[in-house]
Amino acid sequence: MTITPSSSNGQVPALVALITNAAKVIEAHYSKSAKPFVPSLDDVTPHPLDSEMTSPGLREAVQILEGACAQLSATVARPNHTMLNRVMQIYEPGCLHVVLTFKIPDILQEKPLGMHISELSSKAGINEGKLGRILRLLASKHIFREVSKDVFANNRLSVQLLSSNPLSSIAMHFTDENNKAVTLLADVLADPDWGDSLAVEKTAWNKSSGYSGSLFRFFEGATPEGAKQGARFGLGMMGWGNAIEANAVINGFPWGGLAPGATVCDVGGGIGHITIQLAKAYPELRLKLQDLPDRIVQAETEVWPKECPEAIANQRIEFKAIDFLAEPPIEGCDVYYVRAFLNLTRLIYSLLARTIQLKNIMHDWPTKECIQILRNVRKALKPDSRVLIHEYVLAHADRKSADAGSAFTPAPEPLLPNYGVGRIRQYNLDLDMMVMLNSKERTLDEFIDIGEKSGLSFVKLWDLGEMGVVEFRRDCADGDN
């Protein structure tokens, strides 16, 4: 059978048009803000839009721009040129790890207009010539700026790596233990025992670290270094949540369409960061927050009295501890909200208060445990209850799948239908799950399969741009089991 590749005729002007139109949309959004312009990379002053929730239109325009720019570059350049540049990208994480380890952004804050490499290296305690070469590579990728020969300063991107920003902690996780582990992925896949294993103690991270237990056990304090990395990771998850705008679900799902007095149970909700936002945005909702005992005590006695005392005063919030693998949540609620990273609740609850609900829960667990969690949730459902799983939902990269009725709205042609580089973070995270935990992100079909095996029927995918909400109802045909 002869396979005819898709024609690239006309792709270049089409991609350029997508870039031009997306840029106009982005500029229009900025023109309506308090600072009506797109800031320069040299501007280290936060822009008002940096801390506001990104609108769906702006988010899509940025994703189209990122995807189209990357696809255009890959289309017009010689393929060997592009591939050589791609494989040499291994040096960027290493350089970032250096500047994070030695707190280079913090030092540069002392002289906003620029610091000579000799002074900078002296303050950091590392070799002048080597540090200069590292910073020049990063400046060439728009992280830091070289204001004059051998004089460097922070820019709009590098200030995100200040040690006071939790994003720097998650950056350390990815450039340290994660980056070391991914280099051994091929070795693990070639191993006759480990290659097919889904065991949490047979990962590339295990091979890299030399630790024989799970990443969770290590982070919980199996060694002093493990405790240090675990605390750093816990702090970093705050930066992660801010960067991915996990709270987009507040506006992306029609909570306002629920009946007045409807009950929402946030299962594995940590201290209830998202639940607090729901309480403030939708005061007619009655909320239940469930997590491990320490987090519930902290939420009830420290966080909510300060952040949302009106919900406590009006008795709109109930706090109750739960072991989600062993017991069902509070019965009879209208909505059970399940967020990602629930597995990390067990890990981080003793390290740092976090925002975790049945959102980003399922990706840390193998399928068997996911089904167990959802079956426990199902036991609590009344006939018209909904279950909302807030997760990354992977889309395929082929246009035929998209045209065949994908639940996602595909990106405009000739972009890859899953937006390519515009939504690459979820595919990076999928590999992170493989390397560190032997787990995975899932496609919609995989979520539907898990739901059906748990006695749940798929209703709808709510596409939030970065993540998605998979809605289920109780499958009456499955009985009450």
TrEMBL record:
Keywords for the protein's UniProt record, in alphabetical order: Methyltransferase, S-adenosyl-L-methionine, Transferase
Keyword Metal-binding: no
Domain O-methyltransferase C-terminal: 205-336, 355-455
GO terms for biological process, alphabetical: methylation
Keyword Methyltransferase among record annotations: yes
Domain O-methyltransferase dimerisation: 91-164
A Pfam family it matches: Dimerisation
Coiled coil: none
Listed InterPro entries: COMT-like, COMT_C, COMT_dimerisation, SAM-dependent_MTases_sf, WH-like_DNA-bd_sf, WH_DNA-bd_sf
One Gene Ontology term of the molecular function aspect: O-methyltransferase activity
PANTHER family named in the record: O-METHYLTRANSFERASE CICE, PUTATIVE (AFU_ORTHOLOGUE AFUA_4G14580)-RELATED
Protein name: S-adenosyl-L-methionine-dependent methyltransferase
Native source species: Lyophyllum shimeji (Hon-shimeji)
Species classification: Eukaryota, Fungi, Dikarya, Basidiomycota, Agaricomycotina
